[in-house]
Design goal:
- The complex is a heterodimer of chains A (148) and B (147).
- Chain A is an alpha+beta fold and 148 residues long.
- Chain A is built from four helices and five strands.
- Chain A has helices at residues 22-31, 37-40, 42-47, 60-73, and strands at residues 18-19, 84-93, 102-115, 118-128, 134-144.
- Chain A has a five-stranded antiparallel beta sheet with strand order 1-3-4-5-2, covered by helices on one side.
- Chain B is an alpha+beta fold and 147 residues long.
- Chain B has a domain at 7-23 and 59-140: Hotdog Thioesterase (Thiol Ester Dehydrase, Chain A), CATH 3.10.129.10.
- Chain B has helices at residues 25-35, 45-50, 60-67, 69-75, and strands at residues 15-23, 81-88, 100-112, 117-126, 129-130, 132-140.
- In chain B, strands 1, 2, 3, 4, 5 and 6 form a six-stranded antiparallel beta sheet that branches.
- Chain B is elongated, with a radius of gyration of 17 Å.
- Classes of the chains: A alpha+beta (148), B alpha+beta (147).
- The A-B interface holds A 24, 27-28, 30-36, 38-39, 47-50, 54-58, 61-62, 65, 82, 85-93, 95-96, 139 and B 1-2, 21, 27, 30-31, 33-37, 51, 60-62, 64-66, 68-69, 72-73, 76-79, 81-88, 134, 137, 144, 146.
- Strand 2 of chain A pairs antiparallel with strand 2 of chain B, so a sheet runs across the interface.
- Chain B: This is Acyl dehydratase.
Chain lengths: 148, 147
Amino acid sequence: MTVNPDIQGKEFPPTAPYLVGREKVREFARAVFATNPINVDPEAARAAGHADVVAPPTFPVVVQEATLAQLLADETAGIDFSRVVHGEQRFSYTRPIVAGDELTATLTVTSVKSLGGNSMVTASSDIVDAGGAHVVTAISTLVVRGDA
Amino acid sequence: MSTTIDFATLTVGDVVAEREFALTRDSLVRYAGASGDFNPIHYRDDIAASVGLPGVLAHGMLTMGFAVQPVVDWVGDPAAVVDYQVRFTRPVVVDPEVGVSVTVVAKVGQLDAEASVARIDLTVSVDGSTVLGKAQARVSFAPAQHV
């Protein structure tokens, strides 16, 4: 099975809204060894000018996950999950994520390339808030190993 | 965004932070729960071995997640990190008994005076071998635009 090059440019439907909880931010912060008070203490966050605790820089992966599930479940894409290796990851912010945000992600397959028998699939998820304003874009490059 | 660092004092090549992280299997289980990534290669030796891995691996996203924390603590506010990217170049094997030690060194890679943004380059390594490539965090020193 090989990755279908025609999925380049494909946009998936927006995911169900994800409500960012304060305890979830704290739990994630602890898991990535984030100890900055702005990640965990609402008072410290407010003192720094934020509405509530600020999520660590890689937190959007939690929201992005639902979009990658859409991609992997798409039979026309032909991506065999057992052959997928995470190649690259990027987060580009317009503003930080804070507890209380309601986020929706929309995935676009921006590139499908062949490289030495493997496929490189780049998936870009635009994450917006309840008002539709851009918060962060999460970009994953997945390496799909070809048949050995 | 709140910081006590003065952008004007930064010089390309400055080491701004350096830290060692001790990862154990507990760290992987905690990250699996927090992130929702329950791929068993991150907690089961038998499954890791069955797909030809040298052992249970840390989630790449866990390594990406903690590698930026020295930068966050240096600048003083997680919201200052406006862009962050890495390449996953080498797996991090986590021994069940002793775990693994991952070293992070953060250096100023580039300065954009007009935008007041510093690119901080991260060298993330285990036993002297880097595990991430092109690990770059862009840190904004521009005044925050709060509503």
